[in-house]
Amino acid sequence: MGNPATVAVTDQSERNAEPVDMVGIGVSVWDQIFLVDRYPDEDSVVRSDHRLQTIGGGITVAMATAAKLGCNAVLLDRLGHDDASTQIIESLRRAGVNDGLLQRCQGATASVASIWSAEKGGTRTIVFSPGRDIDLRWEERYVETVAAAKLLHLSGRHLDASLQAIAIAKRSGTRVSYDGGAYRYRDSILPLVRQSDILIVARQFAEAMLAASKDGNTDVDQSLSPESLATHLFDTTSAGIVGVTAGVDGSWFVSAGGPDCRGESWHQPAFSVDKVVDTTGCGDVFHGAFLAAIARGQDPKSASRCAAHVAAINATAVGGLAFETSQLDIRLMGWRSSGKRF
């Protein structure tokens, strides 16, 4: 792995890029989602009357969400010329994502996933097929864009490139956001987590991180509430905003600037909807909407409310990017539509 400090740039070059709201570094996936009334038994057939193909991948969906909400969101990833890569790029463009810095290489193929989503209960079973030659190579042309961005959003994928990007972000004033998904904790991502300004993770990620810090064992530690986990992460990392998400139970946040040394803390309930259809990607949408609100200048508490609202609307249809901006309540969003997008 290259040393992030050896990236050759000048202060002037870092100021030359057109400002962007956020840059995301992650692995895109082409999802095939099937709604089923029950999971199939072994060696059986189950009918699905509703299926959809759409983009997936935590960072990818977050950037697409932010773009749909009117942000200038840039995605850094490596794709090929196969059908799945083409579909991903077309979907990104429809959402308004800035794809000008994507690497597209002969011989590379995109990752694909087949998702069975239960109509009752909101659970999912996923079969995942990783792409070929999809490791992002850091390029000098990324430096100016990362330096010009308000936010850099990471999840631990493309680790070498992420470390390069963090080095640029830290000396340029770009805030670093980290998405810690359930069952995604591993020791190798700690350099990213420890340098994050915004740290929003699933409860299981927080539990695994806590367990690893205690004795090197990543078995789930269920002794702490999400609220306590959020406080622990706030106290033990440098992040100024920490959130722990817990699905239908909502999310718990701590941010700097509160009345005591631990900052302000609050619980953001999940919004209820008439019918939950599919929860695929709702956490990723939550991240994207939260960052969009922060980029718009909202305070963290308002941003968490906005994120919960968009994620709830997303669950009323199939897919990781199912919400339409026309469905959103402007009173909960905190900003008005501008231009052709929200």
UniProtKB/TrEMBL annotation:
Gene Ontology molecular-function annotations: 5-dehydro-2-deoxygluconokinase activity
Cellular compartments per GO CC: cytosol
Record's protein name: 5-dehydro-2-deoxygluconokinase
Enzyme kind, highest EC tier: transferase
UniProt keywords, alphabetically: Kinase, Transferase
Stored InterPro entries: PfkB_dom, Ribokinase-like
Domain Carbohydrate kinase PfkB: 33-320
